[in-house]
Each structure stands twice: as C-alpha cells, then as structure tokens.
Amino acid sequence: MILLRDKITQFFNIEVFYFMSICDILVLSTDSGLKCFKKVDYSVETLLFIHGGKEHLVSRGFLDIDRFNLSKRGSLMLY
User: Is 0.70 topped by the overall pTM?
Assistant: First the structure.
C-alpha cells in the first residue's frame, strides 16, 4: 500500500497524509482535501467521453458536478 501512496503522490502531485479502503473505493486525506479513487472498467474512449460530458456541464454553469482529478500531465488515468 505504501507503493500505491507513493505512486499517487508522484502521479497527481498531491501529498497523501493517510488513506483507507472502503469497499472498492480508496479514500485519501490529502493536502488539497479528501479524494476518492475508484477502479473502473471503462475503455479509454468511454472515460474520455464521461470526462468531456462533465466538463461541458461545468462550463455551462452546473457547479455541483463531481470532476475527475487530472495528473500533472493532464491525464485521467493511473496505470
């Protein structure tokens, strides 16, 4: 689990203070607040479509949309 924390810290440029696993969700306490990470079985195309839809809604004024955390390079995925 420490390797996963280090990988998340490096990939997303956030400091992870602690984390816990609840069902299939990894809940992280970070320097930028609570974050939830979940493994999904979507194709890359489906994930990009969902991300694009969410960003479109935010750009149209919907502020209560959960958004994906992008990596330092702007990527959506952690491999």
Answer: yes
